[in-house]
Amino acid sequence: MTLETTTPRTNLLGLTREEMENFFVSLGEKKFRAAQVMKWIHHEGCDDFESMTNLSKALRTRLEEVAEVRGPRVVYEGASKDGTRKWVLEVEDGSHVETVLIPAEGGKRRTLCVSSQVGCSLDCSFCSTGKQGFQRNLTSAEVIGQVWVASNSFDARRDTNRPVTNVVMMGMGEPLMNYNAVVPAMKLMLDDNGYSLSKRRVTLSTSGVVPMIDKLADELDVSLAISLHAANDELRNELVPLNRKYNIATLLDACRRYLDKCDATRMLTIEYTLMKDVNDQQHHAQELATLLEGLPSKINLIPFNPFPHSGYEKPARNQVMRFQHWLEELGHTAPVRMTRGDDIDAACGQLVGRVKDRTRRHERYIQSIQIDAD
Ligand code: SAH
Ligand code: SF4
Predict the structure, then answer these.
(1) What's the rounded Cα separation, in Å, for the pair 105 and 108?
(2) Under the phi-then-psi rule, with left for phi > 0, alpha for psi from -120 to 50, and beta for the rest, what region is 43?
(3) Distance from the Cα of residue 242 to its chain's centroid
(4) In whole angstroms, what is the distance from residue 75 CA to residue 69 CA?
């Protein structure tokens, strides 16, 4: 008996323009087929070669044999009264990730919060994703697949209004620990044949994987957000264990090198999750302001989003306002992220801790992300 071996079909969804061109060249086709097929996939949301009518019948048949356009399967889609939408997506091995689309400015801006990993290995003490441990990296098709699903959900896909105007890599996982999938996906976000987003409207958030910040600087100049949460190493070691490897000074040096490679108007976003009595006192604000002196940056204050057995509490609203005021007095504007999407259990930032237990009734909110958008 002979066993037939079948070569897996190439999923075209996650291929960058260059990879797509190489793919078509390997089929004996011209490079320009790449742009044609990318437009079908990313502009039209098409996953069926038969509908790609500007390709010859023979090429369409060939593509059906060797390729596919396979996005994540939507297992849940919710829309909140305030316009926030959330998708729970099933990826290759049956794991789940969440993607949240947050509208702002009367619908002019729609920011998609994208996940990069199932779980996370970095174990920040206040993060429910970290508490789940690391399961696996998403593929580039699964990362860009989140943008694809969110874009496809709009009937008016071809309107001049883009379904997704901004992307923040602030969902589940540490994007710089999955560099090889995240960078191609971000290239597709920026590509004219992909989602044509400006680099200022694509933000990568990291807890500070220093060598990868340098590597990213050589390849892409998307907006960078740093999850700082503490302005001294002692406290940051506790909150973000990665700090023991790359301390604050090392991290901010890498940020300066990153900014040096961007145009002069570029700013860093500093994320600061406020935890009651942990990092929300006046001396913390002073320390933060001093640390950021001379660094082109803006601070986003995120009140801690509670989850069971976290050991942390959200500060009272007054305390958040006080902290903001102290920073303002020291010359830093620091917007507080607002509560959004309550009725669909949407959350971004500590996004998917809840996927496994969607019935939890604890406090829910979503930060309204307005990072570095033009
Ligand atoms: N791993 C990346 C991106 C995902 S986390 C990073 O750490 O930057 C996105 C943001 O949500 C980070 O700033 C993270 O520190 C913050 N976050 C995590 N858990 C949170 C919680 N329980 N409440 C508020 N913000 C949280
Ligand atoms: Fe990972 Fe970011 Fe959560 Fe830290 S905050 S555990 S880096 S997802």
Answers:
(1) 5
(2) alpha
(3) 19
(4) 18
Ramachandran assignment for 105, one of left (phi > 0), alpha (psi -120 to 50 degrees), beta (any other): left
Instruction: Name the residues annotated as catalytic.
Output: 98, 348
User: If you count them, how many residues does the chain have?
Assistant: 374
Rounded CA separation 5/227 (Å): 47
Quick one: average pLDDT of 62-85? Answer: 93
DSSP string across 38-92: HIIIIIT----GGG-TTS-HHHHHHHHHHEE--PPEEEEEEE-TTS-EEEEEE-T
Strand duo 10-11 + 67-68: pairing = parallel
Within 6 A (CB) of ligand 2 lie: 120, 122-124, 127, 129-130, 173-174, 207, 227
Residues with Cβ < 8 Å from 53, sequence gap 6 or more? none
Query: What are the φ/ψ torsions at residue 59 (nearest 5 degrees)?
Result: -70, -40
Summarised one tens digit per residue, pLDDT across range 291-344 is 999 999 999 999 999 999 999 999 999 999 999 999 999 999 899 975 444 454
User: Ligand 2, atom 2: nearest CA belongs to which residue?
Assistant: 174
Whole-structure pTM value? 0.91
CA atoms of 274 and 61, how far apart (whole Å): 56
- Ligand 2, pocket-test mutation among 117, 129, 271, most atoms within 8 A of CB: 129
Cα of 205 vs its chain's centroid, Å? 7
pLDDT at 43 over 80: yes
In sequence order, what are the beta bridge partners of 225?
A: 205, 269
CA distance 115 to 97: 7
Under 8 Å between Cβ of 370 and 335: yes
Instruction: Check: CB of residue 240 under 8 Å from CB of residue 122.
Output: yes
Residue 207 CA to residue 176 CA, distance in Å, equals 9
In ligand 2, the atom with minimum distance to the C-alpha of 123 is 6
Token pair belonging to 334: 């620091």
The pick from 98, 115, 127, 304 for probing ligand 2's pocket by mutation, whose C-beta has the most ligand atoms within 8 angstroms, reads 127
Say yes or no to pLDDT of 159 above 80.
Answer: no
* Cβ–ligand 1 contact at 243 (below 6 Å): no
Q: Which pLDDT score, from 0 to 100, does residue 105 have?
A: 83
